[in-house]
Design a protein that fits this description.
There is one protein chain. The protein is α/β, with parallel strands linked by helices. It folds into 2 domains: 5-167 and 265-351, Rossmann fold, CATH 3.40.50; 361-415. The chain has 13 helices and 16 strands. Strands 8-5-4-1-2-16 form a 6-stranded mixed β-sheet. Strands 9-13-14-3-15 form a 5-stranded parallel β-sheet, with helices on both faces. A hairpin with a 5-residue loop joins strand 10 and strand 11 (222-226). Helix 6 (188-204) runs antiparallel to helix 7. The structure holds adenosine-5'-diphosphate and magnesium ion. Residues 39-40, 275 line the site of magnesium ion.
Length: 416
């Protein structure tokens, strides 16, 4: 039973938002909407509630206020900042003037950002930005890992850097460190996590890819296997790099920011926020990623943004938060009760992502023509329409199959 997660975010005069209220569920949350509607800004807004060092990534006004309502070990807390807490000094220069608690709410303790850091330091969300390629870097050996408090502080203070790709990813060092520590007596949790990850890698790759970890050799280069071929970390395609860096990042965070005894990934709680989860991923992979992540980290809360209809079709009930740009910049958002697994890609594109041009697509036009030809009982017309459709559509398209059956019955009737 998940006891720690983000329940709500409230932003007022932060960035482009006049007002934003958004409710999350404690499992998966997919924030979906067209480009520029403000998805990344929601994640940035959350980062402000946990660290004043993130403020430089946004523009504020004097009366700006923002907070998250969180459950921490089943206690209700509100963390953030009330109005008049900032020195407004211009683009990327706004800084903190004083710590001000967010307004009180019934049954909830309000904490300013610095109080939260000491009082509920275990609550330390992980932000993963949309920049995820792994640049080649030589690793010379094991690197001492930071002590817990330092890891938590470093994670909180660099949340916006991570979100905006200004922080270097170090997952290769993590792989090499694990190679050195997993057989040590003191590394039981690390060992359990390592094997949990290795076992699950094949489930997160596309069908038949047999994605797996092979070994780390003397030269300290982790080697993987994919479609039966060995390859180095940096040689993996962008999709594998993206998924691997997300997963390794989460393991590293679970182990680095929890006390010993609470570092098992299968049991770990907390919130992971990922911008553009679908980035670099082949559609087939997008269908399976949600399942893979919740299999490896079943008790984490995920708040992710996406443009991808494929990813959305993997979402369950209460998991999709649909965002459309509002002219007055006021938003009240919550997960939709619907599930989208039965929707096709076009329906998701037009109804959720706000793509308006689908009626003009060749496919839609040709279907319309075919329907007219059926209406006119024109066999030749329908035959032409179908052969045009076959050129543009998927070989297994179900509507074309139906049209062909219809053509066959029209031909049979004529022959009678
Ligand atoms: N630092 C900022 N301060 C104020 N407004 C911003 C800032 N960054 C982005 N915006 C505004 O937010 C809008 C939406 O941006 P973004 O959240 O990146 O959208 P999305 O992620 O949905 O594509 C931008 O068009 C811009 O007007
Ligand atoms: Mg964005």
């Amino acid at each position: 039973m998940t006891a720690s997660y983000i329940e709500n975010l409230h932003l007022e005069n932060v960035r482009q938002f006049k007002k934003l209220n958004i409710t999350f569920n404690k499992g998966f949350n997919f924030i979906a909407g067209p480009n520029g509607c403000g998805k990344t800004s929601i994640l940035a807004g959350i980062s402000h509630c946990f660290s004043h060092q993130s403020f430089k990534f946004s523009r504020f006004k004097d009366d700006s206020q923002f907070w998250v309502d969180v459950k921490v070990n089943n206690n209700d807390k509100r963390i953030g900042s009330g109005p008049h807490s900032l020195n407004l000094a211009g683009y990327r220069k706004d800084s903190l003037k004083s710590w001000i608690k967010p307004p009180k709410a019934e049954g909830r303790e309000s904490l300013s950002i610095n109080e939260a850091i000491t009082i509920i330091k275990g609550f330390c969300p992980l932000f993963i930005g949309a920049h995820r390629s792994i640049k080649y870097k030589q690793i010379s050996g094991m690197k001492r890992e930071m002590p817990l408090d330092q890891q938590i502080n470093s994670n909180l203070s660099s949340s916006s850097e991570s979100l905006y790709g200004e922080k270097e990813s170090n997952i290769k060092q993590w792989f090499v460190n694990r190679y050195f520590v997993i057989d040590k007596d003191w590394a039981q949790e690390e060992r359990a996590n390592w094997f949990h990850m290795i076992e699950n890698l094949p489930f997160i790759g596309p069908f038949n890819s047999n994605f797996s970890y092979i070994r780390t050799g003397q030269e300290l280069e982790p080697i993987f296997s994919i479609y039966g071929e060995e390859c180095y970390l940096e040689e993996l395609s962008a999709g594998f790099q993206a998924v691997l860096s997300i997963i390794a990042n989460i393991f590293e965070w679970v182990e680095g920011t929890n006390e010993p005894g609470k570092r098992i990934a299968l049991n770990a709680e907390g919130t992971v926020l990922i911008d553009e989860l679908d980035l670099h991923l082949h559609p087939e992979w997008q269908f399976s990623l949600r399942e893979g992540l919740s299999r490896i980290f079943p008790n984490l809360q995920f708040i992710v943004t996406t443009h991808s209809p494929h990813l959305l079709s993997s979402a369950g009930e209460n998991e999709v938060i649909i965002m459309q740009k509002q002219d007055d910049n006021k938003y009240t958002l919550q997960p939709s009760k619907k599930r989208f697994s039965g929707w096709n890609t076009d329906q998701i594109l037009s109804e959720i992502m706000g793509v308006k041009s689908l009626e003009n697509k060749d496919y839609e036009k040709l279907i319309a023509i075919a329907l007219v030809k059926i209406e006119e009982s024109s066999i030749q017309g329908l035959r032409n329409a179908i052969s045009n459709l076959v050129e543009v559509c998927h070989p297994g398209d179900s509507i074309v199959t139906v049209l062909k059956a219809r053509l066959a019955s029209m031909v049979a009737l004529q022959d009678d």
